Amino acid sequence: MRLRTDAVARRVTGFVTTLPGLLVLLIVVGLFLKSKAILGVEPLSRLLFSSAWHPLKGEFGLLPFITGTVWVTVTALVLAVPVSILAAIYLSEYAPRWVREAAKPIVDLLAGLPSVVYGVWGVILVVPFVGNVLAPLAGVYSSGYSILAGGIVLAVMTFPTIIHVTLEVFSTVPHALRDASLSLGATKWETTRHVVLRKGAQGILAASVLGFSRAFGETMAVLMVVGNVPAVPRSLFDPGYPLPALIANNYGEMMSVPRYDAALMMAALVLMVIVLFFNVLARRILIQVERRIR
Amino acid sequence: MTAFSGERIGRRKRTDLFFRVLVTASAAIVLLSLLLILGTIIWKSAPALSLSMLTRTPKGGFYLGKEGGILNAIVGSLDLALGATALAFLLSLPLVLYLNVYKGRTSKTAVWTRFFLDVLWGVPSIVYGAFGFVVMLALGLRASLLAGILTVALLEFPIMSRAIDEVMRLVPRELKDASASLGATRFETALKVVVRQSAPGILTGVLLAFGRGIGDAASVLFTAGFTDRIPVSLADPAATLPLAIFFQLGTPFPEVQQRAYASAAVLTLIILAISLAGRAMSRKVTRHVVK
Predict the structure, then answer these.
(1) Which of A207-221, A224-238, B56-70, B234-248 has the lowest mean pLDDT?
(2) Which letter does DSSP use for residue A172 in this model?
């Protein structure tokens, strides 16, 4: 009887374990099936590289949205990667123990704040800041609802992801190596640069890629501050219209216009495939890092 | 020679100092951004926060600045997150037990499953929303509490599994061996030893997923619908706090936008409370943990 319970439990739990892989597959297949209605009519190249977005005329060029996503994400990373990595260096190499302990809940909290809260903060503070302070400084006019505002909000949102992974990578660098460097007379920074950063270089890359894929798919916070104008942006102060925002904004109308829903599901598929690619890339690097250290 | 090297050491020291300041400043930026977010939300929401906001549902014209509160969204969000967390737990616990009790830590299954969970963790919530929408249509469901729960459960599942797994991996092998040597089956070991030993971690994982579920907007946008009423059955559409914030902020009326700030403060407080409760409770359930 007890053995039978055990056998049943083994089978049930074993089945559940296949779900993650299955779910990844199902999401891709499900979105693909739904976007077939448009993939069959329009060539993929025109869908991805045309900037004509006129759903009522049946033109679904995703280029403005793809470039919008890339602009916002790259802006966010340019801001977030240096700050996060330097902050991680501080926490792992410089900070006294109690600061390190106190920092953990703070980073966790930053990661746990809902994206609408970031969005509200962006609307209250970042958008006016970009519109009234940064744009005049740069000598241009901007309403503030812009790529730059989206990038700033997104940068703060990616801090915890990059810091967390980078810290983990730094913690795998053996202390003996640091001590050896210090005992040869290297300064703290020289040790950090030549030992910790060199050993952790790959891991830092992986952390940045993970940050990238996290930022790439972020929806609500960006949607609230980025302006949502379907045109290819020309500067940081222009509004943009990222892919996730496109999907979120139009779910209401999509059932009434032919092939609109297919176009949006295809946008979701594009998003999924890109994020999947970067995630797999980052995880592979991290697995390598882990192996090399063991 | 000595003058030269003295100069060099001076330069190295200056570089060292420069970077010490730089890394400290960077850490300060991260800390300040959190304080800035919390400060802004609380400062802006203070004028609009009131008890009636928490205890009433929206009356007619609420989104034009008339009377009412966001009780519908608070209840909707709690229902949704509770349902989704329960469902995700039913999937996560068996999965993690299988990986840690039935399979070796470094078995192929374990490595691949962890990899897929990490990948799923990275999938944007809007994609879960779109996928949930596709499934909903395929099953003939309408936007409802149930559809929302199913979608959010999918979103929470990898987060919870990974968090619990991280802790369960740390359960010492000797403990499992001791249990097996006393004649316990693996299933019994799993329930009575492994689960108990990792109870604090399980709790943290569950709360982490709950917090993620209650704060997520993009996944429920398509699936849970939105309504001014409090949902009474699984088939009813349900309002959620994040979406209520989003819609209120989207109106052109300053009074309604004020309420969006207040709603954001409520959501933030819920998240803060969850994270504090997690810390307090995980200390309590460590009673049964063998050190």
Answers:
(1) B56-70
(2) T
- Containing A266, the helix (H) or strand (E) segment is helix A260-293
Residue A183: exposure state from Cβ atoms within 10 A (0-12, 13-18, ≥19): exposed
* CB burial of residue A218 (10 Å; 0-12, 13-18, 19+): buried
A window 113-152, beta carbon within 8 A of B: 113-121, 123-125
Distance from C-alpha of B237 to C-alpha of B229, rounded to nearest angstrom: 9
Ordered by start, the domain boundaries in chain A are: 64-293
Judge whether residue A211 has pLDDT over 70. Answer: yes
> Angle between the A19-39 and B125-139 helix axes, to the nearest 10 degrees?
80
Instruction: Say what angle helices A198-217 and A63-89 make with each other, to 10 degrees.
Output: 140
Q: Which of A113, A77, A32 is nearest to A216 (CA)?
A: A77
B123:A103 CB<8 A: no
Q: Residue B103 above 90 pLDDT?
A: no
Query: What count of other Cβ atoms lies within 10 Å of the Cβ of residue A101?
Result: 10
Ramachandran class of B80: left when φ > 0, alpha when ψ lies in -120 to 50, beta otherwise: alpha
Residues pairing with A227 in the sheet: A240
pLDDT confidence of residue A16:
82
Say yes or no: A224 contacts chain B, CB-CB below 8 A: yes
**Residue A167 DSSP one-character state:** H
The structure's pTM equals: 0.88
Record: contact A30-B131, CB cut-off 8 A: yes
Which has the closest alpha carbon to B171: B99, B110, B108?
B99
**C-beta atoms of B185 and A19 within 8 A:** no
**Residues in A 35-74 with any Cβ partner in B closer than 8 A:** none
**ipTM score of the complex?**
0.88
Q: What is the per-residue pLDDT across A263-274, written as a single tens digit (0 to 9) for each? A: 888 889 999 998
**Cβ contacts of B91 on chain A, cutoff 8 Å:** 16, 19
Find out whether B189 and B180 touch, Cβ atoms under 8 Å: yes
Q: Retrieve residue A132's tokens.
A: 């009234």
pLDDT digits (tens, 9 = 90+) for A53-73: 887 777 788 888 988 899 999
Which residues are CB-contacts of A211 (< 8 A; sequence separation ≥ 6)? A77, A80, A81, A84, A158, A161, A162
Task: Show Cβ contacts of residue A263 under 8 Å, excluding neighbours closer than 6 positions.
Answer: A35, A38, A47, A55, A60, A62
CATH of domain A64-293: 1.10.3720.10
pLDDT at position B291, please?
Answer: 59
- Report chain B residues whose CB lies below 8 A from the CB of A117: 37, 41, 215, 245, 264, 267-268, 271
Q: How far apart are the first and last CA of chain A?
A: 43
